Amino acid sequence: MPKILRISTVPSSLNILLKGQLKFLNRYFEITAVSGSGIDLKEVQKREDVNIHVIEMQRQISPFKDLVSLIKLYTYFRKVKPELIHSITPKAGLLSMLAGKLAGVPVRIHTFTGLVFPYKTGIMQKLLIIMDRILCYCATDIFPEGKGVMNDLIKFNITDKPLKIIANGNVNGIDLDFFDPDVISYSEKQTLKTALSIKEDDFVFLFVGRLVRDKGINELVRAFNQLNSEVDNIKLLLVGPFEEELDPILTETKRSIEENSNIISVGFQKDVRPYFAISDIFVFPSYREGFPNVVLQSLAMNVPAIVTDISGSNEIINKHINGMIVDVKNELQLLEAMCEIYKNPAFLEKLIKNSRISVQKFGNKLVWEEIKELYMKKLNNY
């Protein structure tokens, strides 16, 4: 069978973003997952039943370490002679596409799951643009995860190669059998509510993701606090880890989370479905995304969403159909949307009815089949 390498900078990207996909593809190709070391890579090996290979790569720009990673990738490609390599995440994309071209790998695919440079300025933006242009030059095929990502690649003249979105967008699609509201029983929901001190008549706003500045946590907490000053039977449920090093939230935001008894922070949770199941509305005020899995998960669990007008989110949410859209960093609009959802049960019920049905076109099996056909076509053509 043809040898195919799936490559990411850190193993959590393979573990979380490509769940189930590698196992499916391994029926037709010899798949090896390549990334830095970590327990996530072992989990990928066990769950997906694929080979793994460790090559450490830095997420941040690190010239010496990046050169070492490039040499290791080149050496590995020359040794195993894969017919196709497919990368996700920025640094893995740059290094593997360059190493793949130098090593003579016939098919070199990169999927852009999000872009950083549109949100940077000055020298850093120029440097990131140059890096992505090198990546695209070295790749044989470029696949943006959604329309917003594709438009930015065109707008900033990153590549003149044809750009195609796989299926209807998203790197892996949504597992509609797993993210199904019916799998969480009433007793499970009641037990979790009791454990979190959520009363039966409480209205629950939910956020799932890293608790960092770029996810809009500062605006979300301030908007919630303002609404909470007017009404008491509301809760803000935060599911995800704090990141103090890369993109920390404001000190006063963290203090509010710790001191407000109506804000419940539960940290990272491996299974987020029970938290969706006890929530009324999902709030995702992120500054930038590629094509956010978590919004798909929310809708699949029949929980409408308030999102910001950014790539991916605005491709999933239809305003006033399955959620609401507000401007990035606009705390007032966010507060108004939260108020409208809270005070208008009939409107919320309409959104709920449209939520799960709106993500049927993003089913993961559709994405997997299209990737399989793409690989076969590319391998037959080289």
TrEMBL record:
Residues 23-140 form the Glycosyltransferase subfamily 4-like N-terminal domain. Residues 190-356 form the Glycosyl transferase family domain. InterPro entries: Glyco_trans_1 (IPR001296), Glyco_trans_4-like_N (IPR028098), Glycosyltransferase_grp1 (IPR050194). It holds the Pfam family Glyco_trans_4_2. Gene3D superfamilies: Glycogen Phosphorylase B (3.40.50.2000). This is Glycosyltransferase involved in cell wall bisynthesis. The lineage of its organism: Bacteria, Pseudomonadati, Bacteroidota, Flavobacteriia, Flavobacteriales.
